Automatic annotation (TrEMBL):
Signal peptide: none annotated. InterPro entries: Beta-lactam-related, Beta-lactam/transpept-like, Diverse_Enzym_Activities. Gene3D superfamilies: DD-peptidase/beta-lactamase superfamily. SUPFAM superfamilies: beta-lactamase/transpeptidase-like. This is Serine hydrolase. GO terms for molecular function: hydrolase activity. Pfam families: Beta-lactamase. Keywords: Hydrolase. The keyword Chloroplast does not apply. Transmembrane segments: none annotated.
Amino acid sequence: MGFGVNVDPGEVGLDARRLRRIDTHFSRYVDDGRLAGWQVMVSRRGKVAHLTSHGLADKEAGVPVRTDTLWRIYSMTKPLTSVAAMMLWEEGAFELSDPVSRWLPEFSEPRVYTGGPAAKPVTVPATEPIRVWHLLTHTAGLTYGFHRVHVTDELYRLAEAEMGSADLATRVRGWAKLPLAFQPGAEWNYSVATDVLGRFVEAVSGQSLDTFFSERILGPLGMTDTAFWCPEAQRHRLAALYTRAPGAPGTARIDAIGQEVMRPPVWLSGGGGLVSTTRDYTRFTWMLLRGGELDGVRLLSPRTVRYMTQNHLPGKADLATFGRPLFAETRFDGVGFGLGFAVVDNPVAYRTPTSVGEYHWGGMASTAFWVDPTEQLTVVLMTQLLPSSAYPLRSQLRQLVYQALVD
């Protein structure tokens, strides 16, 4: 795939003048200092109809956003890990109902938090095992330390402080010792489940996660710039990482976090470790849109992709009713969850004129993507601002993309 607009928007049902509203609107974020720079790609029917870059990838160095800029995609790594697991599932390596402990014995006897402080939590045995399905749907009872609303979150923060430079296998063993926030399958909670799933992929495949990604997903799809770290020879392409400046409308550079991807990682995070480009991630979305195949390379069957992108929550519940009211990379109303993706079940409740069955996710540096099979539409947004909840970039981008659809 060449990188750039390769179709007149009108030929694929998009209004070029209306698409330019995306540029006008988001340029203001750069002009008033809220974002350093950004890039948006809109594709329909496998053709690039709109590609815009604006602002700087590195404000301090004066480097503009370019078509080959590298971005930390953080949790947009999760869909790749989910695809990796389902590729193994298609080979008959496991069933979705299988207990994870069959491959990761540290999860043989999970316990569930019922009360008490972090120093002395009260737990009970889990009533059923953590199953592969639970990891893919974030219903295992695991959590993230950064949620800061539950005692188990605090336990994760304490454990993280002790783990230091531990590798993925050691981290997963550490998480397995911690009590679950709820019984497996009882709720949805954004969590380290996909990192555990990455370790599961390693155990099932016999390969490290980076090797599996490289040989089975990234290489075959031609995602040549996607990896778990940015080598020195490519560092000039890496966007700087920013956060909202305290007490000011601008941004503050955060190299302490941003520079972590400039060296090989101490652990391979299937939940948030990749660096990528707009071109590469668009190829990943095209593979999904085409039912698991791109340019003659098939990773998954169409039926598997359809299955992954249905709402798997019990009773087709949305995250507002089945999930905990915590931070996640999506809004909760009208949105369910499949095997690695948020899935729109009710566009009215979602407050966006998207389609039923549109699926998506984002990353903590405000990156985002979505795939709309009904409209044959894929969209990728890249920028580098923490946290992703700083501004309503995702909802505004959806609004501006869908108003440009005119067929």
